[in-house]
Design a protein that fits this description.
The protein is mainly beta and 189 residues long. The protein has one helix spanning 2-22, and strands spanning 25-37, 47-58, 65-79, 82-101, 106-123, 126-145, 149-159, 163-165, 168-170, 174-185.
Length: 189
């Protein structure tokens, strides 16, 4: 978790300081929502609280934007009197397309790419983790409130992961829906 938070802090700093210098426009959006894991091996941990950050930026002359993200989810359940946390975290990179509907300050977006996914169970004498590469797609809508503040919704799907935890083969594929809060540049007028 400490490594995840440090990476998230680095992403925020890069987005806040560096991206506006070489990108003509972009957004740093945070999301909070719910994630549903599709594999039966997750049992009581298949419904998790999700959180994350995505930065997207447009480079003049490119047909699509680029994006990077840190996403994570977890759930803690009691097993024989011990708290066991199941979690899924990923770092992703991909392509992003945003359509700006200026009169309404509404922005529709879609993105897709690759993610390095780490799934883990920790607690009650269990400390198992495994990683896999997966493919993600996501999309949503947000409104620019004021000059920089973004508010909207983001849906995400992860596919193609292959993990082994506690001797059982499975995956960390999921669907996720969350509220999006963030800011964009340049400031709208």
């Amino acid at each position: 978790m400490k490594r995840y938070l440090l990476t998230l802090a680095a992403l925020v700093m890069i987005a806040a300081v560096g991206s506006p210098a070489f990108a003509s426009s972009g957004n740093l959006n945070f999301n909070l929502g719910g994630r549903s894991l599709s594999d039966n091996n997750w049992d009581r941990w298949d419904s998790q609280t999700s959180f994350g950050a995505t930065v997207d930026f447009e480079i003049k002359g490119w047909p699509v934007e680029l994006e990077g993200c840190l996403q994570g989810s977890n759930r803690t359940e009691s097993v024989l009197g011990n708290d066991v946390t199941g979690s899924v975290h990923e770092i992703c990179f991909g392509a992003h397309k945003r359509w700006d509907l200026k009169p309404a300050k509404m922005h529709v977006f879609a993105g897709a790419g690759l993610a390095n996914v780490t799934a883990k169970f920790d607690g009650g004498g269990i400390n198992e983790s495994d990683s896999s590469i997966g493919e993600y797609i996501h999309g949503g809508i947000f409104w620019r409130l004021g000059h920089r503040f973004n508010l909207g919704f983001d849906g995400r799907v992860m596919l193609g992961t292959n993990i082994t935890l506690n001797g059982a083969s499975g995956d960390a594929n999921y669907t996720q829906l969350g509220v999006l809060l963030g800011f964009g540049w340049p400031a709208s007028k």
